[in-house]
């Protein structure tokens, strides 16, 4: 190696400093450890079945809609709020998608924006209730969870709507054919890329950039860290609050068609309890419900952990019931690992 | 008779030796003041005494017997009570519930505890119902309720950490009367304060710490000598502003500004306030607690909407609808409570300093991290913030350095008018002098400075003009040439009668 490895930089961010910065931007280290552990267990127990493209894309694909919800929930959590309604919003968006397809034969490229608008509309209401009516976001979104689920069941008459629509010739309509690309297993974009995986990754990258590189992103962290200081620094706290809830709703709307395509139908119960997986992914990834702390990269890793955990346990024939138990324990362990002070407490060296 | 002896106390935190071989003795009925810059180890020493820290080196003796104090409960058992700077009362509970918090019987006996707390309150000259909620009490009342809480547990040593930092003069008097009453009953008081003027009046002895070590003690308060002991070097001039210099043209004009108060929050209404600040001028705002000083600055900064009156800035109408609007017009507010109002404590220096001026660093809609970093670094170095880098977490800085980060953040917005609310509260003498020097140089650079402070000597030394507020009205204005005295200002600040009979 010659000495000319690094170009001279104006300030003095030495390599170590930059490394640390990159690393902290990637999220909590323990999340990666967890990911590696799960991969190791997967490979050790079911090497061939686990570690191949089909299994992994299917696993991530099955979780992708929840992963996308987790990105939106992370935005809300960063401002110090919570969004419990994303599961219901995903449900109504998937219902919207299926109805647009079956009743109006809309093209997929028309369906996705419509679903996003539907989600964003309810998300906006969440934000307005939180910011303008000063309702605690937990309460506001809990109410929305109930309201939207009710609407979903009402418009669908409690019957699920299939997306495999047959035309008069008995074959799938062209629209339904195209809709399958959104997530029906076995249908890939350009015969290669499984759309849910791609969508999840793109959403993560876009929102990672928004949070780390834009003024809006900084303001999100400031609102979560100290709303008073944010306001007195010229941040429009109301607008930021409404914006994060609207974006979270919009992402839930975006995830709706994926979920409908994956199940080949929109069930009135679709998305139920997805909000819990989304929140768990954010928390495992290092987000703090107190606000101001967390990253999209962390949430991405958190979502992967939950995904692969489901997959590995499933392959090893662990029952659904035990999967739930293990998932819950992992959330607690992840949170404890993020609190080094807890270890100090156990060792007896407390520090105020 | 000696009631407390702390011998060779030492304490280390990761990377810092906070205390090293410090000894302290206090006699019954004595008031000992602990003096030192931020980070000198005063609070660490007192936290050890109050059982906040589990492990430390050295030995504590109370009443002639070795006391093993390793938890707040131990401290309480030995008759040590501490009133922290940030008061430890639960706002949603009543006075009685707070006084007996943690010592309740399994089944609450409301009647007798309320009678007991009423008696304690009366003893302190507080005319409050024991059922009143803490959130309905004023700061000064809360302070005395903390004292009542300490008294309710047969206190022998009472530690007070900066008890007067949030109190107005009249309230300080009352606190002193209480302290004298306590010492007459044999209670030993350890008093931490940054206000040298106070020590003269209340302390029997002043013990000075510096960098975690004992420097010396004096029973006579000699201001210059004590400051020298604290900083370890003679401090040339505490208030460096010699003369007003030439003030430029009018920058801010406020006419007949009225703001309604807000019931419940205790916000003082402003009544027909008129004032002006010229470029290159430092204007002071004096007044007691609740006189409306903060409200005035906040209204100019767009936090509250005025009901009447008009403002102009740089000759143009100025009607800020939010702090955002004020910042765009080149106004900055160094708020009163830096932790609650100015800083995102969990985030870095760079994050905090860049927050209001991000607009400056935008390139294609993205924040250009490199130019932002460079600007923040330059500003932070200029103000001599002591930290390992701009990625340092603000919450771990000392008070003086935190305040410098707040100043850096506002200077980065290149303001023309800087509003400062208690800019030197709770920070050490060295940083204080630096902030005063900065104010002078800002004025010399043609900026307008409007500063509210409860420390009259500071205002008298720094300001070209001083406005006095009382109950939301301006009751007097003094120019530097008039050489106003503290007494004259206080008189105007308490011109309450005149106001209410009008």
UniProtKB/TrEMBL annotation, chain A:
Keywords: Cell inner membrane, Cell membrane, Membrane, Transmembrane, Transmembrane helix, Transport. It is a multi-pass membrane protein. Pfam families: BPD_transp_2 (PF02653). It is found in: Cell membrane. The keyword Lipid biosynthesis does not apply. Signal peptide: none annotated. It comes from the Bacteria. GO terms for cellular component: plasma membrane. One of its GO terms (molecular function) is transmembrane transporter activity. The chain crosses the membrane at residues 23-44, 114-135, 193-211, 232-258, 278-309. Its main location: membrane. PANTHER family: ABC TRANSPORTER PERMEASE PROTEIN YPHD-RELATED-RELATED, AUTOINDUCER 2 IMPORT SYSTEM PERMEASE PROTEIN LSRD. This is Autoinducer 2 import system permease protein LsrD. It comes from Nonomuraea diastatica. The lineage of its organism: Bacteria, Bacillati, Actinomycetota, Actinomycetes, Streptosporangiales.
């Amino acid at each position: 190696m010659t000495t000319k490895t690094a170009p001279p930089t104006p300030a003095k961010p030495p390599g170590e400093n930059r490394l640390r910065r990159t690393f902290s931007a990637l999220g909590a280290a323990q999340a990666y450890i967890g990911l590696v552990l799960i991969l190791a267990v997967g490979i050790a127990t079911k090497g061939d079945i686990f570690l191949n493209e089909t299994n992994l894309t299917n696993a991530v694909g099955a979780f992708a809609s929840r992963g996308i919800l987790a990105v939106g929930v992370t935005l809300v959590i960063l401002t110090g709020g919570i969004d419990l309604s994303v599961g219901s919003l995903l449900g109504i968006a998937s219902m919207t998608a299926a109805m647009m397809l079956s009743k109006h034969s809309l093209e997929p490229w028309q369906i996705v924006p419509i679903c996003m608008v539907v989600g964003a509309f309810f998300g906006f209401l969440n934000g307005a209730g939180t910011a303008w009516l000063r309702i605690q976001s937990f309460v506001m979104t809990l109410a929305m969870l109930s309201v939207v689920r009710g609407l979903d069941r009402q418009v669908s008459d409690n019957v699920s709507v299939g997306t495999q629509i047959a035309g008069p010739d008995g074959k799938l309509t062209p629209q339904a054919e195209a809709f399958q690309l959104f997530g029906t297993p076995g249908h890939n974009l350009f015969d290669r890329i499984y759309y849910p995986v791609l969508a999840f990754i793109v959403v993560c990258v876009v929102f990672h950039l928004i949070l780390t590189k834009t003024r809006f992103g900084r303001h999100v962290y400031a609102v979560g860290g100290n709303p008073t200081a944010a306001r007195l620094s010229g941040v429009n706290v109301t607008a930021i609050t409404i914006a994060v809830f609207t974006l979270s709703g919009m992402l839930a709307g975006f995830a709706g068609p994926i979920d409908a395509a994956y199940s080949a139908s929109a069930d009135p119960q679709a998305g139920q309890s997805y909000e819990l997986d989304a929140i768990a992914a954010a928390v495992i990834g290092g987000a703090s419900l107190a606000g101001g702390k967390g990253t999209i990269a962390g949430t991405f890793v958190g979502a992967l952990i939950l995904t692969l955990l489901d997959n590995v346990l499933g392959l090893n024939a662990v029952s659904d019931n035990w999967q739930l138990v293990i998932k819950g324990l992992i959330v607690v362990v992840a949170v404890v690992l993020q609190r080094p002070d807890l270890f100090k407490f156990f060792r007896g060296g407390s520090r105020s | 008779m000696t009631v407390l002896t702390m011998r060779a106390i030492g304490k280390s935190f990761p990377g810092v030796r906070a205390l090293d071989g410090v000894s302290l003795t206090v006699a019954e009925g004595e008031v000992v003041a602990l003096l030192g810059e931020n980070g000198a180890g005063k609070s660490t020493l007192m936290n050890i005494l109050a059982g906040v820290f589990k492990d430390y080196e050295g030995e504590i003796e109370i009443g002639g017997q070795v006391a093993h104090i390793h938890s707040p409960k131990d401290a309480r058992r030995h008759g040590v009570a501490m009133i922290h700077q940030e008061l430890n009362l639960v706002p949603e509970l009543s006075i009685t519930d707070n006084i007996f918090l943690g010592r309740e019987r399994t089944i609450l006996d409301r009647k007798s505890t309320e009678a007991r707390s009423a008696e304690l309150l009366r003893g302190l000259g507080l005319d409050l119902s024991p059922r009143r909620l803490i959130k309905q009490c004023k700061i000064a009342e809360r302070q005395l309720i903390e004292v009542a809480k300490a008294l309710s547990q047969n206190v022998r040593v009472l530690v007070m950490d900066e008890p007067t930092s949030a109190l107005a003069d009249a309230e300080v008097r009352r606190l002193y009367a209480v302290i004298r009453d306590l010492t007459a009953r044999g209670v030993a008081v350890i008093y931490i304060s940054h206000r040298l003027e106070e020590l003269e009046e209340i302390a029997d002895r002043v013990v000075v710490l510096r960098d975690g070590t004992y420097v010396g003690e004096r029973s006579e308060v000699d201001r210059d000598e004590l400051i020298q002991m604290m900083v370890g070097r003679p401090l040339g001039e505490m208030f460096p502003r010699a003369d007003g210099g030439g003030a430029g043209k009018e920058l801010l004009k406020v006419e007949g500004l009225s703001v309604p108060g807000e019931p419940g929050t205790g916000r003082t209404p402003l009544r027909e306030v008129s004032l002006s600040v010229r470029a290159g001028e430092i204007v002071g705002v004096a007044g007691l607690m609740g006189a409306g000083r903060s409200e005035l600055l906040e209204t100019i900064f767009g936090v509250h909407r005025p009901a009447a009156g008009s403002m102009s800035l740089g000759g143009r109408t100025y009607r800020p609808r939010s702090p955002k609007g004020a910042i765009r017009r080149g106004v900055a507010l160094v708020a009163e409570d830096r932790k609650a109002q100015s800083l995102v404590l969990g985030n870095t220096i760079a994050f905090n300093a860049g927050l209001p001026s991000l607009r400056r660093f935008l390139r294609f809609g993205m924040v250009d991290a490199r130019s932002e970093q460079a600007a923040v670094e330059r500003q932070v170095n200029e103000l001599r913030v002591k930290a390992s880098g701009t990625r340092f977490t603000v919450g771990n800085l000392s008070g003086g350095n935190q305040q410098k980060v707040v100043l850096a953040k506002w200077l980065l917005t290149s303001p023309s008018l800087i509003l400062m609310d208690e800019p030197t509260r709770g920070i050490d003498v060295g940083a204080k002098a630096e902030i005063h020097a900065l104010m002078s140089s800002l004025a010399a650079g043609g900026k307008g400075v409007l500063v509210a402070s409860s420390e009259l000597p500071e205002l008298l030394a720094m300001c070209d003009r001083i406005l006095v507020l009382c109950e939301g009205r301006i009751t007097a204005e003094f120019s530097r040439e008039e050489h106003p005295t503290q007494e004259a200002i206080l008189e105007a600040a308490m011109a309450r009668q005149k106001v209410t009979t009008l």
